[in-house]
Amino acid sequence: MANTVRLTRIELINTKKRIKVASRGLELLKMKRQSLVMEFFKISNEVRGLRENIKNDIEKGLNAIKVAEIIDGTLEIERISYMFSSPEIKIGGKNIMGVTIPEMSAQAGKKIIDDSYLANSVPVSIYDAITLFNKIFKELLEVSQKESSMRKLLNEIDKTNRRSNAIENIMIPRFNNNYKIIREHLDELERDSFATLKFVKSHVVSTGENNK
Length: 212
Hints:
Blueprint: H1 9-72, H2 74-81, E1 88-96, E2 99-107, H3 115-121, H4 124-211
Antiparallel strand pairs: 1-2
GO biological process, one term: proton motive force-driven plasma membrane ATP synthesis
Organism: Ferroplasma acidarmanus Fer1
Protein name: A-type ATP synthase subunit D
C-alpha cells in the first residue's frame, strides 16, 4: 500500500495535534471505564445482598401462608386477596457516565379495603403474610432494576474497552509512525538544504577570491 502521508511541515504540526487529542481521549475513556467498573461492582454487591434477603423472606413468606391457612383457612385468604389489584410499575431512568440506568417504582393498585381496615380487621396471620409478600415484591423489583443496570453497564464497559483499545493500539501508533516519517523526511530535506547552502556559499567565496 502506498504511503499517503503528506510530507509537509503543516502536516507534521497537525499530526502532533492529533496525537495529543487522541492521547487525551484515551485518558478520558480509561477514566470512564474505571468509573463504570466501580459502579458495576457496587451494584453487584447490592444485588448479592438483596438476593440473600429475598431467599430468607420467601422462606418466611411461605411459612406465613401455611400458618394463615391453618389458622384462618384457604377461603379466607382467597377472599381477602380479591380485594387487591395488581400494582402499577413505572419505569424511569438516570444517567451514569452516559449510560441510562433504569429506575422502577411500584404504585399500589386499587383496593377495596384501606390500610386502616387492613391493619385492624384482617386476621393477624394473613396480615403478616401480606406484609411479607409486599416486602418481597419490592425487593424483586429492586433486584430486577439493578440487574438490568448491570447488563447496561457491562455493555458500555465493553464498548469503552473496544474504543480505548482502538485508540491505544491502532490510532496512536499510526499517528506516531506518520509523525516519525514526516519528521525524518523534513530533517533529510533540512540536511540537504544545509549541504546545498554550504556548497553554494563555498563556491561563491571561491569565485570571489579568483576574481581578485
